[in-house]
Amino acid sequence: MIKNYKCIVAYDGFEYLGWQRQNEGKTIQGVLEKTLTTLLKEKILIHGSGRTDKGVHAYAQVFSFKTTTSVPAENIKLVLNQRLPKSIHINYIEKVDDLFHARYLAKGKRYVYKIWKKESNPFISRYYYCFTKEIDIQRIIDAKEILMGKHDFISFMASKSNVNSTVREIYSIDINNFDDYFEIEFYGNGFLYNMVRIIVQHFINIGLGKLSKEEFNEILLNKKRQFSHKTAPANGLYLKEVIY
Fold this sequence. Notes:
The protein starts with a strand and ends with a strand. It has helices at 28-40, 73-83, 137-144, 195-207, 213-222; strands spanning 3-11, 46-48, 57-67, 88-96, 108-116, 129-130, 149-152, 167-177, 181-188, 237-243. Helix 1 (28-40) packs across helix 2 (73-83) and helix 3 (137-144) crosses helix 4 (195-207). It has two domains: 3-96, Pseudouridine synthase I, catalytic domain, N-terminal subdomain (Alpha-Beta Plaits), CATH 3.30.70.580; 108-243, Alpha-Beta Plaits (2-Layer Sandwich), CATH 3.30.70.660. 33% of the residues are buried. By secondary structure, the protein is an alpha+beta fold.
């Protein structure tokens, strides 16, 4: 009898080429499939809620897979975590309805981007965008409302992306400012390739006074990728939650 499982996995993406399996190079999906195939003694293919790029981390990526195994979910989780590298950890596994699919049934996602405000050091540089120039957080707070709601976000999509629609809806953007760092949390029904990282770099330029709120709004309305604004690095980005 074929069973369908939903899994939640956390990972440090620093040493991986991203989520999606590749013919060469180490990926999160590739390591998980190889470990599951060895453990369950049958070919396992997993379906993630979406891709994360090289260097991007996750608190709670979701994937699903089907298997004929009779091993209980808790046992799969226990042994899987014993065999996986320390950079990947299974938080949760449960048996779900046969129709569940981690990607196609996802209703929304939360991403958080972390920016370190002080001098970098080896213990934080792989987990934050280290940026020591003074940023006016209030300017970012004032400008973020421009992105609320449903828009065509093609201006904030990486080039050579292949999607049917570039329209997405952002439900909220929250900014939390701490002594050493600040973080920007995005919640929406979906995000285009590099969309969060591109928006973050625009926010930084706004905070530096290099980009006005009005210019930012014009970029959104122009629906044309602004190549003058770089993409914030991957190491500060985390997939926080997938909503079903």
